[in-house]
Fold this sequence. Notes:
ATP binds at residues 92-102. This protein is α+β, with helices and mostly antiparallel strands. The chain has helices at 71-76, 99-115, 130-135, 169-175, 193-198, 205-211, 214-223, 247-260; strands at residues 6-23, 29-48, 53-57, 83-88, 139-143, 147-150, 156-162, 228-233, 240-244, 265-271.
Amino acid sequence: MTPPATDGFAPAKVxxxxxxxGQRADGYHLLDxxxxxxxxxxxxxxxxxPVMSLRVTGPRAAGVPExxxxxCWKAAEPFGLPxxxxxxxxLPAAAGIGGGSSxxxxxxxxxxxxxxxxxxxxxxxxxxxxxVCLLGRAARMRGIGADIQPLEIAPLHAVLVNPGVAVxxxxxxxxxxxxxxxxxxxLPWNADLTAWLAAQRNDLEPPARALQPVxxxxxxxxxxxxxxxLVRMSGSGATCFGLFESRAxxxxxxxxxxxxxxxxxxxxxxxx
Length: 272
Ligand SMILES: C[C@@](CO)(OP(=O)(O)O)[C@H](O)COP(=O)(O)OP(=O)(O)OC[C@H]1O[C@@H](n2ccc(N)nc2=O)[C@H](O)[C@@H]1O
Ligand SMILES: Nc1ncnc2c1ncn2[C@@H]1O[C@H](COP(=O)(O)OP(=O)(O)O)[C@@H](O)[C@H]1O
């Protein structure tokens, strides 16, 4: 009997902090990052089919590859079961919120459910962010991305903003001046997480801002929102986020930001 189609959510990944602590001989950087996942994201549907196919739909489909270059395809193919994949794209691409990696993780989950076995290929080979996206919840991520420690963190309320410029991750890493920055300090057990975060950094923010100065404009706009508690860039950019004390305050900030900047992608969300 043909197994039924499976449907999965691919949440946006947010790096609340991102320290670059070293560089390996192969050029990959060592990271120390607090990662959480949003309740905004893409959707993937995976169904057994006579041949492999991929269709990308949704408001952010433009420019996303519909062939073997797509991480969804790369995640499914090694299982050896041909599937028809539909990717309903809502997250901006090349945006520092791991859209492709989270899509790949959703396809991996679907393929595991359809075939009853784990990925025949090491998942980190799909990308440094894929292992944490497969976990899909708050974690401290170290090494080049595969060293993951799940964390119990109370949900945070945020607004994500992308100004519509694509940023190349390798280009940002190349533009980073210092590769051996200090690691994060240990997370607090019961103190205010936002206060702790304020003492951490995203080391990729200065090089990304130098490449795309509009990131500075986004950070300023988020910083001017009523009730904002922390403002920072995620991943290699250009998406930035603000943290707020409640979802209602985040919703209201998102509304104001959208009104003032109709071309920006602005989403209030809850991170967990
Ligand atoms: C920077 C981060 C932080 O979470 O997020 P994004 O900005 O992509 O969202 C990730 O490490 C990105 O992960 P991912 O996008 O999966 O990276 P990969 O495809 O493996 O690598 C893309 C390129 O980024 C650089 N890279 C990536 C990860 C890493 N630890 N060191 C690196 O130097 C390399 O130049 C590599 O060729
Ligand atoms: N499923 C996918 N969604 C978006 N982009 C993808 C996907 N698969 C491959 N790509 C390619 O990967 C590049 C990086 O996209 P993405 O994973 O969204 O970046 P980031 O990790 O910085 O948010 C894109 O420019 C696109 O060409």
